[in-house]
Amino acid sequence: MPTLTAADAALSGALRLSVMRLARRLRAQRSDATLSLTQLSTLATLERHGTLRPGELAAHEKVQPPSMTRVVAALEAQGFVERRPHLTDGRQVVVSLTERGRALLREDRRRRDAWLSLRLHELSAADRALLRTAAPVLERLARS
Amino acid sequence: MPTLTAADAALSGALRLSVMRLARRLRAQRSDATLSLTQLSTLATLERHGTLRPGELAAHEKVQPPSMTRVVAALEAQGFVERRPHLTDGRQVVVSLTERGRALLREDRRRRDAWLSLRLHELSAADRALLRTAAPVLERLARS
DNA sequence: TATTGTTATACTCTATAACTATA
DNA sequence: TATAGTTATAGAGTATAACAATA
């Protein structure tokens, strides 16, 4: 158990507040949401991992299998994913992104990035450079 | 309208992902949640702004007044806030934090900071120093 | 008549439990 | 008998609409 200094405590408090606030602003950029956060996140997981079964999706998204059944049904009804029977195991189903689902993900990201890009441009060049070095560290924190 | 360079686009994409992921991890630290996020956020708003009326709280938390009625009722039932009639305007009600509510906020922050502090300690001293300079920039972004 | 807050009711999201089909 | 997925049902959270009390 490492010793935590006062500077560490101050840093974690400051970092926690600013990260949570910035995340809230980013989330607010999709106020015209046509999909729930879980639905959108499920699409992103499919984009990243390719075809998955409902049970695997449920595990990824940390929801129970019956909830994922409904999420996938809603996404399928809107044409963002396809459900197909497994080739050899009749119990299983495989879910994959459609081109329409891919397009939705692109559009969603574009809109959020547009907001953030404008705000970044209001910073000084030095601050932007600082964030460029800090972003990978934040990413490592998020994965740890 | 400023011109956005490719470097800006790359930065905003990287920053958005890492901030959202880190925020998700921080949020997950309160899995034993006894209060909903809106209830907790309402307590924090009261701590920051002092006594407020239900309508003002609803505006702050971006929920409709009837929803705030229920949030305040739940918080009052658990002893985290007090509801009192306004001194001169009989239509109004004022809501304020109790000492118990204040203690809950302190405990909630302590637990989240503990998780983050440990992760920060796994970084190099240089990376921690980097984050110390980056945190205020992130905070400014969140407020802009 | 306007404003503040509440009650009544409905919808969305997710959960647990029970069920069906296949291995 | 075990596994994958679905259906049935319930609970939490929030919304809109209607109402009550006061200004």
Can you tell me about this structure?
2 copies of one chain form a homodimer. The radius of gyration of chain A is 19 Å and the shape is elongated. The longest helix of chain A is centred in the N-terminal third of the chain and has 23 residues, at 6-28. Chain A has helices at 6-28, 37-49, 54-61, 65-77, 99-121, 125-143, and strands spanning 81-85, 93-97. Chain A has 6 helices and 2 strands. The first copy, chain A, has 144 residues and is mostly helical. A two-stranded antiparallel sheet of chain A has the order 1-2. In chain A, a hairpin with a 7-residue loop joins β1 and β2. Chains A and B meet through α1, α5 and α6 of A and α1, α5 and α6 of B. Chain A binds a DNA duplex (23 and 23 nucleotides) through residues 36, 38, 53-55, 63-71, 86, 89-93.
Quick gist of this model?
2 copies of one chain form a homodimer. Chain A contains 6 helices and 2 strands; from the N terminus they run H-H-H-H-E-E-H-H. Chain A has 144 residues and is mainly alpha-helical.
